[in-house]
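queue> holo job accepted (zinc ion)
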Amino acid sequence: MVHILLEYETFTPFISKLMKRDIINHLLSEVSHRMLAVVGVLVLALGMVTALAFTPAPVSPEDRVEVVETLKLTLGNPLDQGDEIYAREERIVRGERLDQLLSRLGITDNDARAYFLRSPETAVLHRQLVPGRVVNARVGGDGSLFSLYFPLNGGENGLIIEEEDGRLKARETARQYETRQIMKSGEIRYSLFGATDSLGIPDSIAVQMAEIFSGDIDFHRDLRKGDRFSLVYEMRFLHGKPASAGRILAVEFINAGRTYQAFYFAREDGASYYNGEGDSLRKAFLRSPLAFSRVTSNFGRRFHPIHKTWREHKGIDYGAPTGTPIRATGDGIVQFIGVRGGYGNLIVLSHRGQYQTAYAHMSRFANSLKKGSRVTQGETIGYVGSTGWTTGPHLHYEFRVRGQHVNPLSIALPTSIPLTSAQKANFQRESADLKTMLALLKNAPVAHFE
Ligand SMILES: [Zn+2]
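queue> job finished
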């Protein structure tokens, strides 16, 4: 099996949105014609893709080798040495003067040097040569300067010096982040984090994915070996290096053979995630009372043998470290809060439609919560513990309808206000590109190279 990791720049000024779609469509058709290698060349030639990697499926996540090619930015004839632009980065050293720094950055052009050393616009730089700060520049092969970024003060803003109409100009600017869309696709073999780690996907994106589908999938219990996901998410880059993850724009998750899709969409009263038809993914109940995290996912499936003797055991147990926050799975009212026999510290919430949820063995309750308090979905109501009949810290969770224990899997009620037809039209227009990207990711990992 071949996995494609495809990263491409979103806001590149050279490629219009329309062209982008053409390219993706082209990619799709090419992929289906078993010409992945050709596609790679095509995309690289267009200068759209910053990194493209084909990697074989790993024997284990550690075996995965990611091949990433970074393109050198070239202007004009690439054979002409003088036309090349190099990205330079240097750290200011103690006691360094500005002219020495310019030399280390490879800026030899006399006009540029004179500008830095004499212009009042750049006078501030002499006073801010703080050791350790990183200065970035784009310098021509002939020592000319195209642009330079110098961090000021705490680094939250900086001075950018750029050529404009044939002469250098300086302007202060906020930190220079660049947002790119990243497309990645993977298969779960051992755990979600095992898969995301091997693909270099940040934890915050893995957690967002679990949150987006939290009404449909319990990421602690429902994941299956062979589950697959495709992601389009934002990543902020600072001087070409990944700085922080943004939000997921589109995601597909195939859980136990069932496909779920989500697309980010902002409307006047807030942004949310919708499926391909434009229906909200928010449900009346979360599938899990514990937020998915590396900690809760690593805590393991500890068995609690005491429940074997508990004839009335009709709940779901979540192993988690003491102190892990427990969240209300739906909007409701505190019906019971206190100690009750084997349950230990227990909270029972009552919800509309005669639903009840119960949360047992808590180490403590959330402050100020008492009988009759109103809670909202996702709100922390207490913390995992081992009070009552238990051999170790875990949460015992029950879901009841009219007093009868039921499997919460069978309840999946949508809650939020549906999109209007105008909003739906907007949604369909805005999500079209994202749908194409998910289709590309889905179709790409086929066994061409085996
Ligand atoms: Zn239990």
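queue> The chain is about 20% helix and 35% strand.
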